[in-house]
């Protein structure tokens, strides 16, 4: 990094900054390379203790080390930092750099009482945690606030804070820009990206000092490094060229190599962690893919997708060059590509469960806070529903005691809820370890290739359970033939140890044995929405009644399993406008019987039958469209009556009753619709009748309780007094329910509003269509004949 005692563009505002800070919140707008991230904390510390909130872990530790070095000391004394798994500061540190998550946790504990000034750096990234932190600190009005950004709508933010705005110049050297695209409007594209970047590097590397390549993710970084290694293997073997990855989970060694000058020429392949805050000395060439991975809302879910960057981000990336001399930026997209002006705020792109719980635990219902941009109402309601269901907040949006237990755990709110809901220590430990394994940035392990290794995996973990595989790996059972990422596994273990320590659980090396059935049944009870059943026809799909998931390629879920707990999902934009593809990436197969044991689904009545032992009804338990259990039982209560009605309707009991009363009721309803009702002659009230309901009333009135009771009655005991007897035959002649011709039986439908009669083929082998003269007169009605899907006018 550039030494802080050098003159920097930000130095021009030092006097104004120190003069206005005691009385006003400040918005500092300065282009990348101005020195704002290192100078402002030192200035502010002259007036009291300073907390600096940096959006990225890499920047947090790097900036603290730089400022400490400028003060002639090691980090951890007057200048310190706090990130997950690494705290280097004391209560006497004047300046403490922290990530937003740490700042929010400290705010919930003591209100940041020991700090006078809070600097929120790189606010233009619009992370949900920095937006939330600013909204709560503004409401508390107990700290002097400084918000910095390289690209921001400064007037709007200054008005929001009611403060003052200071602006400083940017980089010291010019950065030229060129574009590689066949058309000036071409958007960033991931296709052939590694080969494009390799070609640019091969053409340009000898004319530059260090090179910084911006890529969307770790996968692309790995692919590009492999491609460039092949192309420049001689320079790498000679020790003159160093290829360095830089992303959120790189080792300290790689981070140090990326941020420290070297005798070798360096090519640094980075995600957007290098876009802001950190300075990489010696970079004179930027290669920008124009892509990033970021979240967005889609049908109520947070989806991670590949996106083109905004214009603001493009300028930030460009600004990483030009620190030591004039630089150049090569963009792999068109000059006129229609990029967004700025990246939308995370609070508009993601679910609000975590922000809502964080705000509640800091003493503020999220709905009561005023943000720079108003929050989406739909997302607010969805988050409130989820947290209320977990009993983490109350109806007023305030944190419950259970919610305060969940919040400090450094994992997803659902996982925190599951950990605290476990009924015994062994289940709680299992849930902690699995949560830690699923909360790290990348997968801990990958499916091995080759039949031999797959067989070994099956012997090693025979249940085909992704969850148990992760737990075994965290607890030290790592087969040499399995594809493990040691750095990610180490991070997952540290996270598990941190949560175990916070909850007073044994450390990993003495973990309690997992009682799998007890543990998974406890999870099913605490979070029933995680229980999915397989579709009977589309075997790759499973549903829970609310959404559908597809088995991911890296899941070991067996073909023979019919139900599963889905612990982790990965949502991708689908091909349709309103479609998501939700991959189930961590599954635990469970027997269908467990769902029945825990009373999942609803009981419905299936078929009925009569045998020598009496009348029987099939009881079905249905969950997410699947019958998960069935058994036959003697009908009782309401079930008994429904069973008797089913048997009458299918003709097993009182044969002929159902058909006869169906016609009677059909004619009565038609009689009413035609306005023929006369209160002086009709015994029934003028209301339509439904056959099943009418049979139920008759069975009730006769006191029938069993099939044996019903067999004591005849059809005459179930008379229907609808159309008066003296009028019925004439009505049936005028409006028949059925018409029978030679070898042709038709049922008649009457559509009164359209004055239409449809004769529907029921049976008969007659090939010719009926003629108009063969049918009843139906004066004034249009007549049609329907056989299967064919409909014709009868003339």
Automatic annotation (TrEMBL):
Keywords of this entry: ATP-binding, Helicase, Hydrolase, Nucleotide-binding
Helicase C-terminal domain mapped to chain residues: 196-370
Lineage of the species this protein comes from: Bacteria, Pseudomonadati, Pseudomonadota, Gammaproteobacteria, Vibrionales
Domain Helicase ATP-binding: 17-170
Example of a GO MF term: nucleic acid binding
Protein name, as recorded: DEAD/DEAH box helicase
CDD domains (alphabetical): DEXHc_RHA-like, SF2_C_RHA
Species, as recorded: Photobacterium aphoticum
């Amino acid at each position: 990094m550039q030494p802080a005692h050098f003159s920097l563009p930000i130095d021009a505002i030092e006097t104004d900054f120190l003069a206005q800070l005691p009385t006003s919140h400040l918005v500092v707008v300065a282009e990348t390379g101005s020195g704002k991230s290192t100078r402002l904390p030192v200035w502010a510390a002259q007036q009291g203790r300073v907390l600096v909130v940096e959006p990225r872990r890499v920047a947090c530790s790097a900036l603290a080390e730089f400022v400490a070095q400028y003060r002639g000391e090691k980090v951890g004394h007057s200048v310190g930092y706090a990130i997950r798994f690494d705290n280097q500061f004391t209560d006497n540190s004047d300046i403490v750099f922290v990530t937003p998550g740490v700042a929010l946790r400290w705010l919930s504990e003591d209100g940041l009482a020991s700090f006078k000034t809070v600097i929120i750096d790189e606010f233009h990234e619009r992370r949900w945690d920095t937006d939330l932190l600013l909204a709560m600190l503004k409401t508390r009005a107990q700290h002097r606030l400084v918000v910095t950004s390289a690209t921001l709508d400064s007037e709007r933010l200054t008005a929001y804070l009611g403060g003052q705005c200071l602006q400083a110049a940017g980089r010291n050297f010019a950065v030229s820009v060129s574009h590689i695209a066949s058309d000036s409007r071409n958007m960033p594209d991931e296709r052939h990206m590694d080969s494009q970047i390799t070609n640019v590097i091969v053409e340009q590397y000898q004319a530059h000092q260090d090179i910084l390549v911006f890529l969307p993710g770790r996968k692309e970084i790995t692919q590009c490094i492999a491609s460039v290694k092949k192309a420049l293997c001689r320079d790498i073997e000679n020790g003159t060229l160093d290829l360095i990855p830089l992303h959120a989970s790189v080792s300290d060694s790689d981070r140090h190599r990326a941020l420290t000058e070297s005798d070798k020429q360096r090519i640094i392949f980075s995600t957007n962690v290098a876009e802001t805050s950190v300075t990489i000395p010696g970079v004179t060439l930027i290669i920008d893919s124009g892509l990033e991975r970021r979240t967005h809302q889609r049908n109520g879910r947070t989806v991670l997708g590949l996106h083109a960057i905004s214009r603001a981000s493009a300028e930030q990336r460009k600004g990483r060059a030009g620190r030591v001399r004039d630089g150049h930026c090569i963009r792999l997209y068109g000059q006129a590509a229609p990029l967004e002006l700025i990246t939308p705020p995370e609070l508009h792109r993601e679910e609000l469960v975590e922000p809502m719980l964080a705000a509640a635990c800091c003493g503020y219902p999220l709905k009561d806070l005023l943000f720079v941009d108003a929050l989406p109402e739909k997302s607010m309601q969805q988050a409130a529903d989820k947290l209320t269901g977990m009993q983490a907040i109350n109806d007023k949006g305030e944190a419950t005691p259970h919610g305060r237990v969940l919040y400090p755990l450094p994992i997803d709110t659902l996982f925190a809820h599951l950990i605290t809901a476990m009924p015994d220590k062994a289940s709680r430990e299992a849930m902690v370890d699995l949560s830690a394994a699923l909360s790290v940035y990348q997968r801990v392990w990958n499916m091995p290739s080759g039949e031999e290794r797959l067989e070994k995996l099956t012997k090693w973990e025979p249940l085909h359970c992704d969850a148990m595989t992760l737990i075994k790996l965290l607890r030290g059972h790592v087969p040499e033939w399995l594809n493990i990422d040691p750095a990610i596994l180490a991070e997952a273990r540290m996270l598990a140890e941190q949560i175990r320590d916070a909850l007073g659980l044994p450390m990993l090396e003495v973990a309690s044995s997992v009682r799998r059935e007890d543990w998974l049944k406890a999870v099913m009870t605490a979070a029933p929405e995680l229980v999915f059943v397989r579709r009977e026809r589309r075997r790759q799909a499973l549903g829970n009644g609310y959404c559908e998931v597809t088995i991911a390629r890296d899941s070991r879920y067996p073909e023979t399993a019919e139900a599963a707990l889905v612990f982790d999902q990965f949502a991708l934009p689908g091909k349709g406008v309103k479609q998501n593809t939700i991959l189930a990436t961590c599954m635990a197969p469970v027997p269908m019987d467990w769902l029945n044991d825990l009373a999942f689904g609803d009981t419905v009545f299936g078929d009925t039958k009569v045998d020598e032992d009496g009348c029987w009804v099939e009881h079905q338990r249905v969950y997410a469209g699947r019958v998960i259990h069935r058994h036959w039982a003697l009908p009782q209560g309401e079930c008994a009556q429904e069973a008797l009605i089913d048997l009458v309707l299918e003709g097993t009991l009182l044969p002929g009753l159902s058909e006869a009363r169906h016609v009677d009721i059909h004619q009565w309803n038609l009689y009413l619709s035609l306005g023929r009702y006369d209160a002086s002659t009709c015994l029934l009230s003028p209301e339509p009748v439904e056959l099943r309901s009418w049979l139920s009333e008759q069975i009730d009135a006769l006191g029938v309780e069993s099939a044996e009771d019903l067999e004591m009655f005849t059809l005459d005991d179930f008379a229907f007094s609808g159309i008066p007897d003296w009028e019925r035959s004439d009505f049936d002649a005028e409006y028949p329910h059925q018409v029978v011709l030679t070898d042709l039986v038709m049922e008649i439908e009457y559509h009164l509003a359209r004055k239409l009669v449809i004769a529907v083929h029921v049976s008969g082998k007659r090939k010719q269509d009926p003629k108009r003269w063969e049918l009843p007169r139906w004066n004034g009605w249009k007549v049609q004949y329907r056989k299967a899907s064919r409909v014709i006018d009868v003339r």
